[in-house]
UniProtKB/TrEMBL annotation:
Belongs to the short-chain dehydrogenases/reductases (SDR) family. GO terms for molecular function: oxidoreductase activity. PROSITE patterns: ADH_SHORT (PS00061). This is SDR family NAD(P)-dependent oxidoreductase. PANTHER family: DEHYDROGENASE/REDUCTASE SDR FAMILY MEMBER 7B, DEHYDROGENASE_REDUCTASE SDR FAMILY MEMBER 7B. It comes from Gluconacetobacter aggeris. The lineage of its organism: Bacteria, Pseudomonadati, Pseudomonadota, Alphaproteobacteria, Acetobacterales.
Length: 272
């Protein structure tokens, strides 16, 4: 897999940071985006120490114009990774059932779904104008969805919805743009040990170390997999759960610690 010209959102922490470090090598040019300037600078130094040329930019993925300008001005791109994302749970209320605030729902969709769209669409334009390589590939784009996108989990409604949309968008669009030599991949993974899950005070089955997750993602992208899944048994089980009538599934989910209101901070944690 070529890895010369690479752009990564959410690069200042979590999966984005791990992918950047895996790809940092002499000859690689890394365009790294994130919102936390200090952490982004630290990642850039670590990547540069491995021989990569680093071009860092403090960039909010919700800013469509800013994202289009950044990606459009980056030059040729071999690999693009949309890794920025947030998560949060429902919150308890003094009366009535738990709910998410309107602000949380809108922010979740703006970051997790809108941020991917603001990354992928400009990247498709750039790659569409590039000459294909010896394998007929003009470029590869990968977005981080989640196993949560395969279920309707009461504890994280907007997170599930946003990740489901990311997965469907990437997989379906990938079928179209494959004819143009552009490979799209969606990552449906379980819990990964990153700052995003650090505050989770409940069991996380199948918890994957972030370096292992980055390696699995890069293998899948190199192989041209439209959907990259791990751990497979968690994804398979989630698919089976989603076949159940909603009330049956909810009876199980609502007994899990992660399903309780307030199990995660309302404002979530942004991976960039």
């Amino acid at each position: 897999m070529k890895r010369d010209m690479i752009l990564i959102t959410g690069a200042s922490s979590g999966i984005g940071r791990a992918i950047a470090l895996h790809l940092a090598a002499p000859g690689a040019v890394l365009h790294l985006g994130g919102r936390d300037a200090g952490r982004l600078e630290a990642v850039g130094r670590d990547c540069a120490a491995r021989g990569a040329r680093v071009l860092a930019r403090r960039q909010d993925v919700r800013d469509a114009e800013g994202m289009a300008a950044w990606i459009g001005d980056a030059g040729p791109l071999d690999l693009v990774f949309a890794c920025a994302g947030i998560t949060a749970s429902t919150s308890p209320r003094s009366t009535g059932a738990p709910r998410e605030s309107e602000g949380q729902v809108r922010r979740m969709l703006d970051v997790n779904l809108g941020g991917v769209i603001n990354t992928v669409l400009p990247a498709l334009e750039v790659m569409g104008g590039q000459a294909p390589d010896g394998q007929g590939v003009r470029g590869r784009i990968c977005a981080i969805a989640s196993v949560a996108g395969l279920v309707s989990f009461p504890g994280t409604p907007s997170y599930c919805a946003s990740k489901a949309a990311v997965d469907r968008f990437m997989v379906a669009t990938g079928g179209n743009v494959a004819g143009d030599g552009i490979r799209l991949s969606s990552v449906c993974c379980g819990f990964v040990r990153t700052p995003m899950v650090a505050a989770n005070d409940f069991p996380m089955p199948g918890l994957t170390e972030v370096d292992e997750a980055a390696a699995a993602i890069l293998r899948g992208v190199a192989a041209g997999r439209r959907r990259i899944v791990f751990p497979w048994w968690l994804v398979a089980g989630s698919r089976l759960m989603d076949l159940l009538p909603p009330r049956w599934a909810e009876a199980y989910y609502n007994r899990q610690p992660a399903g309780q209101a307030g199990s995660m901070p309302e404002t979530g944690g942004m991976s960039s």
